Amino acid sequence: MTHMEEFLSNISETESRYFADIFLCCDVEKTGKVPILKATELFRSANLSNDIIRQFNYKGHNYFFSGHVPALENKKYDWLDGRNLCREYCMDLVSMETQEENNLIFRLIQTNDVPYIWTSGRLCDFKGCEGRADLEPKNIFGWFWSANREKIQPTNQIPQGWGYNPWSRTGHKKQPQPDNAEFDINQTSESCLSVLNNVYNDGIAWHDVACYHEKPVVCEDNEELLNYVAATNPGIRL
Question: What are the boundaries of the signal sequence (predicted)?
Answer without folding.
Answer: none
